[in-house]
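BUG-385 | component: ligand-complex export | severity: low

The export step for pyridoxal-5'-phosphate jobs runs without errors, but we want the raw record kept on the ticket for reference. Input record follows.
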Amino acid sequence: MKEIIYADNSATTVVSEKSLAAMLPCFRDNYGNPSAIYAYGQDAKKLLEDSRRTVAKAIGALNNEIYFTSGGTESDNWAIISACELKNKTGGHIISTAIEHNAVLRTLEKLKGKGYEITLLKPDKNGQITPEQLENAIRKDTVLVSVMMANNVVGTILPIKDLCETAHKHRIVFHTDAVQAAAHIPIDVRSLGVDLLSMSAHKFHGPKGVGALFVKLALKPAAYITGGGQEKGYRSGTENVPGIVGMAAAIEEGVENLQNNTRHLTVLRDKLIEHTLKIPGTCLTGDPDKRLPGHASFVFDGGKNGVHLINMLNEADIYASSGSACSASSTEAPHVLTAMGYDPKIAQSALRISLSHYNTEKEIDTINKKLPLLVAELRQRKGQY
Ligand SMILES: Cc1ncc(COP(=O)(O)O)c(C=O)c1O
């Protein structure tokens, strides 16, 4: 069997053994509907509530502040809609950033047609947003600030605690998309102060199609999906018990091993960055210091289309991407990089290598050996790079 180097962990991750082992009995043995009153139902209900407790503990929240969803996209949609409905049903001003995931940006666009005005803060060259920028953008009618905790394209970690403090000085609800951050960097909702926080299990070795939204107890989410009244009536639909159980096992494992994983990943990431930057005309994108432990991203001078490089890496059995998983095959420059001030032509050459604790030093050595050769080969192909 050929050996693949999987280095696209910001797109998705392998389900861990612990997560898988926790899920399997839910398909065959504990398959009851948590709303049913007989033993099968009550067993499933217990698994659901135990999982809620585990997910809450992982981010320093209370059990009744966690609502399960179908993933990061739904959590982001729900958070934004909730914050708007809480404050003002007819319109208002929302502040976010130009580097958010489309789960946030497209939801905001939809609100634009419904009487809301949107301000997207522009990041600096490292993908950072400052509290001063936020302060200057706040208006009397601002109802929500939504800023991601860590960026999926460039790995920058944003100053959420400070930004949240700024929003709260003006009594504005604060949401953070922590899809790339949860179980990868420490999160404590109380010390951060956030009101709403989105997570997705498949980004931390849990299954796909399941996530959670943290909603501070003082706030109530808007009823998002109506039906049978699950999730306290706010998000109806029979709960995805296997997925939720898998998510809880994965986040617990991730948080327990956070320090060790961070140490391992930082060594691999820095070795990769150091080596890649030796390729002439290569530039690291994102914050050189405040970045996710396993995240390395680059652009190449004179580069035209990162898809060619991604394809060549693919042929060399190295799986990486140019930026967001949703636009992996797109030849357009990632909006995150253009918002950070990169020329669209340079931004098109983006390469993202995102590692997990399953990656080894040997794999990094292989990438470090092959990447310079592939870039050189591509540059020789006239008109392509
Ligand atoms: C920052 C960010 N937010 C939201 C999402 C969407 O999450 P999901 O794939 O669980 O819908 C992603 C996925 O790539 C992401 O990176």
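Assignee comment: Attached the raw record above. Residues 71-73, 76, 101, 103, 148, 152, 177, 179-180, 200, 211, 325 surround pyridoxal-5'-phosphate (CB under 6 Å).
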